[in-house]
Amino acid sequence: MKKLIAIDLDGTLLSSNIDISAENIQAIQAAQQAGHVVMICSGRAPEDIKTVIDKTPLQCPVAGSNGTMVIADGKLLSQISINKDIVKNVTEVLNQKEYPFKIYSNKGIFVASTWSERMLSFLDKNQEVLNHLTPKEYKLMTEQPKETDSIKIFEELDAVLAIEDLTVQKFFIPTISGKEELISSLEKFEGISITTSGPFNIEIMDTNGHKGNGIRVMAEYFNIPIENTVAIGDNFNDVPMLETAGLSIAMGNGDPAVKEMADVVTLTNNENGVAHAINKYILEA
Predict the structure, then answer these.
(1) pLDDT tens-digit profile of 136-188?
(2) How far apart are CA 61 and CA 56, in angstroms?
(3) Which of 253, 254, 267 lies closest to 24 in space, CA to CA?
């Protein structure tokens, strides 16, 4: 029976070293050879997912930016965007509170020119986050990103929103102190959903933009009944796809609440939990 297997990246397919193990690659290839479809369903932007996957021999359809952009066979199957007035309102709140943030769009990831100074200020106020960072992570997080094909630096939001055919799929905001206060000031805006992919961030999408949509659209495209789908994830932004899938698998390193709601729990991301899950629940089932 042909299945669709949706796999999260960070904390799931990727180890703590941000790489995909040979065991995980082999298990995915074995599932594909057995006729199953394996998709990557991540909070990362599609181009970012591609960069990660291109370092391996894998080829997979993707649902990026938390399932708001679904791509298979080189085609954009679904795109769910945040209303531009709401984008302005959210940005206004983030600027008032001086939060660092990134805007994920169909034209790349837009990072404010104030990223570095806001990030340093954020870390200064959040020693708990600072204590978790390696020197390499600290450097990556605090240095001002360079313009690339997929990363754009901006001064004013109006200039971004004026770009022809631009659509915004997601905000990414590092946060911990004042997190609840920030969420409550954002919740007054209708039409958005707020989630998190880790203890130190929040992510904002359109209400209909989530990983559950990603797995649904892909299942429809490949003509696979939703009950024949499998989702593997570790955090709260994975919950919609875990709830949608026929079989939900939480990582051993997952958030306790996510493990509680999943059908089964596999090994951790550093123990090839994805390979273990594919072998046990799909190939040997």
Answers:
(1) 778 888 898 899 999 999 999 999 999 999 999 999 998 877 788 999 999 99
(2) 14
(3) 267
